[in-house]
User: What shape does this take?
Amino acid sequence: MRSHIWAIAHREWITRVRKKSFILGVILLPLLGVGTVVGLALVVRESQVDHEVLMVDHDGLIIKEHQGHWVPRCPACFKEREGLTYRFAREMPADSVWLAQGFTAVAEFDNAVVQNQHGQLWYDKAPGVQLTSWIARDLGLALEHMRVLETTDLNWPDYRGLRFDVSLSTRDIKTGSGGVEVRAAVGFAFSIFLFMFIAVHGTTLMRSVLEEKTSRVVEVILAAVRPSQLLWGKLIGVAAVAFTQFLAWSVLSFLGMGAFKLLFNAGTFTQGLPAADLTTMLAENELTRALLEINWPVMVGATIAYFIGGYVLFGGLFAAAGAAVDNEKDAAQFTLPLMMPLLFAYMAGSATIGNPDLPLLVWLSWIPFTSPVSMLIRVASGVPWYELAGSLALLWLTAWAMIRMAGRIYRVGLLNRGKKPGYMDLIKWVRRGD
Amino acid sequence: MEAALEVKSLAKAYGENRALEDLSMRVMPGRIVGLLGPNGAGKSTMIRIVMGILSADRGEVLIGGKSWSRRALEDVGYLPEERGLYKDMKVGEQALYFAQLRGMRKKEAVQALRSWFERLDVDGWWNRKVMDLSKGMAQKVQFICAVAHKPDVLILDEPMSGFDPVNARLIVEQIRYLASEGTAVLLSTHDMSSVEALCDEVMLLNDGHIVMSGESEALRDAGWNGEYAIGYSGSDVAFARGLGATCVLGKVNHLASEGSSIQGEARTAQVVLRQGYTLSEALRGVADAVEVHEVRKLRPTMEELFISAVQPSQDA
Assistant: This one.
């Protein structure tokens, strides 16, 4: 009889994975993702405009004359950057003149800038957020240079030596792990992934049940297998489709990353910059260091375990909803309320992303209808093993109880045609079981 | 001999509605038994209980003399009234899937299915999608799915629905063939012509219990009310005089009656013998007056038996 479950699961799996839409989805989606990132990087690099910015200092606050040209008093303040060149002047030329001279933007300021801490940037080609912030930073630094020399006895290097730029790196006192924001973001990304997987494959399961019911094939099957075997076969088959998709995406992502690494190391994305090795660069970056510090085996293991529990819990209920009605529209009456707890967990997760130990998130990570989403946000930041085990045990036990209940609705619903059942009917079916 | 399928004192109720009441029946190997009854009589409920789709409130089902079990059910083939196929699967792999669910190994299933595909003239369709099949073709594939695992018992619920006369005949031949091989066939239908053409026995179900059962011929004999059809050529008045007091003369058809070989000027009169008279006495009188071509008993058809058995309770 166990072979029946596998036969049903195999049919569910094979009919889906060989569909053109599945193959295209598996291959194209990651390619689309990687392609978008790489494409954007290349497009940005190719379309990068060299900006020549004229700094018009009406009152000579930060510039001085040198051999007939205006030059900055603090050359070090105007750092050399890729695609950005500064020129300096006291007078604002006519628009047609500075445009004809090839300037892409003009920053104009006078004494008031010291009071207002505000200047004006005129542009011909939109400078972008980064360029604007570079110009503002450099101008601010040059003004700071002027104020230090005017109001103190310190020279610029000494003043710079006195300054402290403090950054804080977060570290959990119990686990010793750091990078809490990055970890929370990773956990949130995983929880979104899980939310989508449960919703998508739960719906697939519901459609599959509806298809068997509306095509009238179900009675032929029920004459050979028990309803519970049919339900488990379908659950396993559709879950296998999800894992196939996950596996294919993992392999493709791995290959994609490998290709990216090769291209990166070959300098495709870093032309004009000092040569760099991707691994070294990743290790030096604080963000990537936090990523590397995440306990990935636990993260991936928890994702799989919560997917199984969440999918069985919601998938069983979705299948029961599909069996109870005759069309997808009617099924939505039951499935929409079912998705609400997961949706709530997702929204709560997005609101508490920077604070994984918030009591609301902790509570939600214990409630089986929300834990698949909520706990994953916390797992990335590190969760005591007993909390993880307890939450998982609660989820799996609830999933087991729910699948038994859903099985009764499924059994009666499959042969029920015509009248759309209400919630009271479903309760009767659960009690009667036949 | 042991019954291939036996149902003992089966009872099932849906809330207040009693679908089956103390229903017992048996189907012997090699016999084709027709299960008749109006809509809601309990036929589908009984079949679904036998197939394990519903559970009975009371009673017992025996398959091949053994108590009902999922394993025993592998010896039963089932073609439900509400049947379908997966549209996005290929015909062959779908039939193979059903055969495997029925406990067959892949190799023997392929062999059996290939042979049935050939027999029902669908052998070119193995690799085609179900959605490309016509309704009749799909019905044939469904029939194959029900019989491929060589069941000892075959339950067919309205097997002829959706078939054109040519294919209906083909299916009738296959059912006869299976019965000749020893398969016990339970045929649930409203189609009286297929009952008369196929069934060795008939069971009439109404309001959840059997109201009539037995061999088809015996039932028709039992339902006979002494009516004869006499085919003759000559004057109607002379014929009536010739009958005299022996019979009550009923309808006279001026065309040959259905099934009769008499054409042209022939007439067929329906007569009922009066008490105390014999058929020989009646024929002696008319033989001098007209030319008698044919004399036969006018037994009720299965449809007439069905209506007469069901009507009283429906009227009530």
Summary: Residues 225-297 of chain B form a domain with the Alpha-Beta Plaits fold (CATH 3.30.70.1570).
